[in-house]
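Reviewer 2 asked us to include a model.

Predict the structure of this chain.
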Amino acid sequence: MKVYLAVLDTLADWEIAYLTAELYSKRFFRNPETDCEILKVGLKPSPIRTMGGMEIKPDLVLPELSLDENDLLVLPGSEFWEDPQHGDPFLHFAGTALAEGRNVAAICGGADGLARIGALNHRPHTANNKDNLLASYPEYAGAAHYQEAPAWRDANLITASGLAPLEFAREVIGLLGVFKPETLEAWYRLFQTREPQYFGDLVASMQP
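Predicted model (C-alpha cells):
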C-alpha cells in the first residue's frame, strides 16, 4: 500500500507526527514486512516549508497521483487550504477519490477544506469547529452529520480536529490494518495516558 501525504507550505508538522513515525518505522506492525510506503505529493516539484521550518521535497506532483484500492491520501493541516489556488486541486482530487471509494484522511485545515467544497455534506465527519464551518463556507450543508469527536472514521473517510493528532493516527492505522487490534489499543492508551501498564500491554501484544 502507499500513503500519499499532501504537502503544502506551512504544513502542520505535529498533526502527522505520530502517524508518519509509526508507518515509516513499522516498529509495531503486525508484519514488519508489510509493503507500506509514504510518498509526498506537491503541486510543484519544488520543496515546501512546514510550519516548523522543515523543508520537504515532494516525491511526485498531484497530476501524477493515482490511488489504488488500498492506498490512502492524507491531507494535513496548513494555512493554505483556504487558498483556492493551492488548496482546491488537492481538495477536488480528494472529493473525487472519496466518491470512487478510495481512502482519504484529513485533519484540521484539510478537513475544513473538504467541508468548504461540499465533500462532507452527506458523510459523518468532524473538523475543527462546526459553527465555524457553517459561518465560513456557503457550500457546507453537513451540520446534521457533524460528530462532536476529536476524530471520526466513516468507511473510507477519516476526519479530525487539529487538536487530535493522536486520535487521527489511531483511526488511520486502524483503517490500514497494519497493527493488531490489541497493539493499536495499547499504543493509543500509552500515548494518551502515559501510564506504564500500557507499555507492558504494548510489548505483550507484539509477542507471536
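The first strand starts at residue 2 and ends at 6. The chain has a mean pLDDT of 97. We have added this to the supplementary material.
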